[in-house]
Amino acid sequence: MITGKNLIGYKLSGEGLDTFKSYNPHLEKENPTVFFDASLSEIEEAVLLASKAFQQYQFFTAEQKLKFFQALENEMLEAKKSILTCYQLESGLPLSRSESEFSRTIAQIQQYSKLFDSNQLILPSIDTAIYDTHQPKSDIRKIKVGLGPVVVFGASNFPLAYSTLGGDTVAALAAGCSVIVKSHPMHAGTGELVGNAIIKALKYAEMPEGVFSNLNGFSNNVGACLVNHPMIKAVAFTGSIKGGRALFDLAARRKEPIPVFAEMGSLNPVVIDNLSLLKNMNKWTDDLADSVTNDAGQFCTKPGLIFIKSGQNVDEFVQMLISKVKEKGFKMMVHPRLKGNFENQLDDLSKILNIERHKLHSSSVVMPIAINISGSLFLTHRIFQEEVFGPFCFVIICKDDAELIQCIESLDGQLTASIFVEDEFQNESIVKQWISIFYNKSGRINFNNVPTGVRVCGSMHHGGPYPASSDSRFGAVGVDSIERFLRPLCFQNFPDALLPDLLKDKNPLNVLRRVNGELSFAEIIR
Amino acid sequence: MITGKNLIGYKLSGEGLDTFKSYNPHLEKENPTVFFDASLSEIEEAVLLASKAFQQYQFFTAEQKLKFFQALENEMLEAKKSILTCYQLESGLPLSRSESEFSRTIAQIQQYSKLFDSNQLILPSIDTAIYDTHQPKSDIRKIKVGLGPVVVFGASNFPLAYSTLGGDTVAALAAGCSVIVKSHPMHAGTGELVGNAIIKALKYAEMPEGVFSNLNGFSNNVGACLVNHPMIKAVAFTGSIKGGRALFDLAARRKEPIPVFAEMGSLNPVVIDNLSLLKNMNKWTDDLADSVTNDAGQFCTKPGLIFIKSGQNVDEFVQMLISKVKEKGFKMMVHPRLKGNFENQLDDLSKILNIERHKLHSSSVVMPIAINISGSLFLTHRIFQEEVFGPFCFVIICKDDAELIQCIESLDGQLTASIFVEDEFQNESIVKQWISIFYNKSGRINFNNVPTGVRVCGSMHHGGPYPASSDSRFGAVGVDSIERFLRPLCFQNFPDALLPDLLKDKNPLNVLRRVNGELSFAEIIR
User: Fold this and answer.
1) Confidence band, pLDDT 50/70/90 cuts, at residue A103
2) Does the distance separating the beta carbons of B114 and A514 come in below 8 Å?
3) What is the mean predicted confidence (pLDDT) over A314-338?
4) Active-site residue B86, yes or no?
5) Is the pLDDT of residue B442 over 90?
6) Does residue B151 or residue B358 have the better pLDDT?
């Protein structure tokens, strides 16, 4: 049963006076459960618990964390049916999406379980003492440890994989941090059910109360209070530039500034080589139309700008793409608020472009659309570089190579950039020029691949130069995303008995270590 | 010859109207050279050059960078005599210090040369494609690349090892970033000479102009303009909390916020186990008195707070330590400005503590001092937790274990924390409690070692929770400090020919890579 209350450690609490309901886009009406915004005292209680729990949890072994993570997986599978049912009630996303997102959520837990199992999460580093009589050097050893309690903001467009037990939460938990989730109000019920599964797993694995709490908040104040709390040591967010930047600014103005990893806006530019169209027109328009419209285009990696130089077959390509996007037909958006934003942005663009638009009489459904504009028009106004979250893209037809280069050089930082070129043209110097421009503007460059469908693996990078993310040095997908929540800690001249096991002379955990600069499983002889 | 001009790429330029001179603390008078603050147009020119140079330099191979770094080493050795002579004219630090700092500067260059030579600077990661018909996965590969042009602020207390070609500069250059140094005005001549050596090395290794520039600035405006410039992508700073925080705030308020790694204030608390005094009183008081007063205590790792529980031998220990600190005699400070700050802080403390002080009639020389206070007094006022930069420490005598715990729990983030305990008492639970408190408050915990004399090695961590540094996830010493200036870049489904060599199928550089989660030198078979 969904109570609408906050999960504060193992307690349910709904003291707040502000309430809200989630919305069913299919039925176009509110769901019945009343959710309680966390009150100031509830926030305080959750943070204190998280801080206390962190003091213990951070010292837990990989074996203990593995037990916890396996329990997370089990409890999620146990609750799968009720979670997916609620997901459907609270989101306009299709059933298939809820299934695939659930699988991804499980896969994200498993990737850390695997590292716990093989004890490969941290690479310890050891430089042994040098007993030179002139310049003796002390024994120096280093591991990484968790930053402290982390606040994770649930994402509107990923009720599972980037919310309550999404990529940010599991990375922070794997790092040894306690986590407070500020649940996304659009799917607060789903959040509560996932939160219940986490609490069960914590209890099963005998973890201290407070390693996880789930707070509701329709008001931005809940999140702001959390980010401002002195005991909070890091923040993870997925959403708009406006939202992410506001949190970043709050965190930077604290007495003790804390890191905010905000994965924000991206236009995910695509460059199509027009010489390659003949062989690929059908496949590429299929792939791109899918990528633009899939799940109503509500992906941070949705291609929003498709560039091509004018030439033979180009008009045909553009018309084919525009048609295929339109033919996808009505798409239901996650929530009316996102639908409203989408319509407003398209209204603004239509005015500028002198296009007539007919609004649909639905609170949730939108019509996919691709619009072609010239490269010279694209360069005139920054509005064409504002992300439109939904099933929309611009196709920008440039008059020559130089204009196309000018267009992509005008772009801000991006999560991804994609290049579509047939094999035989891949060594053209213009292709290398596109790559070298995207090299400094994006976190991932795709070749003949659409940017959506992010593979969850160690080599993936999901982040990019600002405003794609608030710190281009970190990403939000794959095991390396744990680095956001870890800091080095160094032990000098320590007696073996007092060192963490990862650093002990005999290497009792049999972990790979960097010893005097070389990777080794060897024991240390003092 | 020192010109006093700015090094903008390969050009000498002194257009600015504001000028200054450096100061000779030994002679208590200004040096003759007139230095020119960089003008706005000079700053613009240096940044444009740095940005252009970065576009080329970032793609240079490890082999090319090795040639450059070896040339850096050679040119520095070539210029050693003139650099050390100037160092002596511009700083109150002793000759032995300039020698050891020079050696450290060379060692810092060499640590990267070694990694270039073995091509171990970056660990590439590859996840190969999965051709499963249900859920095919693309080939994903990742390296790290430089952030872009970096501004490095020279440190007052390290004219060599943390200035023009100090740890920050070599880390940024190793990362593939171009560097603009905002030279510290106290040793601007030393900076120019080191800058000349860098320019010679760049020319020898045929690097593009603009990989390095050296700008003078007595005014804070020079640094502020650099940090605010949209083409600058990261900042490194070593100095006061006030200075570091000001740069952090500037960078956070930019349209595109950029990372600032500021290594700032630290009190470097030391806890002495009073049961261990009998065997160690002499050695420990010797070590601590040296650590507090060495080079006039002008180290970020100088122990500023020494805690001990009252008990047998404690009074004797405290008196012995206070005497030994005083017996070190007059110490010359780097610069009259630092001497002035030191005297002012001691005046303030003396008033609060009702101690009489006699000021010395010197612009440069100070008298080392250790002052004992009670734990209860320490807890009453935050002024006792303000860093006093110079040969000074508090010895805090706590009435019991609980008060000592309360004292160290009241501390902010620290670069280091040290514990002195005789072998036989190391397993006492109180020792473990001290360690667990310092675990979350410091970047390095020392055991029976003073915190000064930072060993430059891969396992060292020089950084810590705020305000020790502005981002506890990074450090400023050792090869891992390069992470401050690198970001991941991912290549999806790329043809082999267009991949960076580090990621090519045949592993042509024979570099260790993470392939499908396992470390390997193997070729990739597609």
Assistant:
1) very high
2) no
3) 96
4) no
5) yes
6) B151
Whether ipTM > 0.90 holds is: yes
Q: Which residues of A are catalytic?
A: 263, 300
Name the strand (E) or helix (H) holding B383. Answer: none
pTM listed for this prediction = 0.97
In the predicted model, what is the mean pLDDT of residues A272-286?
Answer: 96
CATH no. for A270-447: 3.40.309.10
Tell if the CB–CB gap between A126 and B459 is shorter than 8 Å. yes
Confidence class for position B50, pLDDT limits 50, 70, 90 = very high
Query: Which pLDDT score is estimated for A425?
Result: 94
Q: What is the pLDDT of residues B156-192, one digit of tens each?
A: 999 999 999 999 999 999 999 999 999 999 999 999 9
Q: Which residue of A has its CA nearest to B503?
A: A459
Find chain B residues with C-beta within 8 A of A468's C-beta. Answer: none
State whether B449 and A138 contact (CB < 8 Å).
yes
Question: DSSP 3-state assignment of A252?
Answer: helix
Cβ-count burial A202-222 (b if 16+ within 10 Å, e if not): beebebbbbbbbbbbbbeeeb
**What is the rounded CA–CA span in Å between residue B484 and residue B177?**
11
pLDDT band at A361 (very low <50, low <70, confident <90, very high): confident
Residues of A within 8 A of B470 (CB-CB) are 257
Q: Where are the domains of chain A?
A: 16-117+127-264+475-484, 270-447
Identify the CATH homologous superfamily for domain B43-264+475-484.
Aldehyde Dehydrogenase; Chain A, domain 1 (3.40.605.10)
Average confidence (pLDDT) over A469-487: 98
The structure tokens listed for A130 are 């040098």
Residues 6+ apart with CB under 8 A from A389: A157, A240, A297, A298, A302, A338, A341, A342
The residue from B86, B177, B300, B407 that is catalytic is: B300
Token pair of B38 as six digits:
């960089």
The CA-based dihedral angle spanning residues A455, A459, A462, A467, taken in that order and rounded to the nearest 10 degrees:
-150
| Distance between B445 CA and the closest CA of chain A, angstroms | 5
pLDDT in tens, A339-356: 999 999 999 999 999 998
**Mutation test of the interface with chain A: which of B177, B425, B461, choosing the one with the most A Cβ atoms within 10 A?**
B461
3-state DSSP call for residue B378? helix
Contact A457 B432 (CB under 8 A): no
Beta bridge partners of B418: B270, B446
Q: Which of A125, A130, A472 to mutate to test the interface with B (most CBs of B within 10 A)?
A: A472
Tell me the pairing of strands B35-36 and B19-20. antiparallel
Round to the nearest angstrom and report the end-to-end CA distance of chain B. Answer: 59
Q: Do B138 and A455 touch (CB under 8 A)?
A: yes
CATH of domain A16-117+127-264+475-484: 3.40.605.10
pLDDT of residue B164: 98
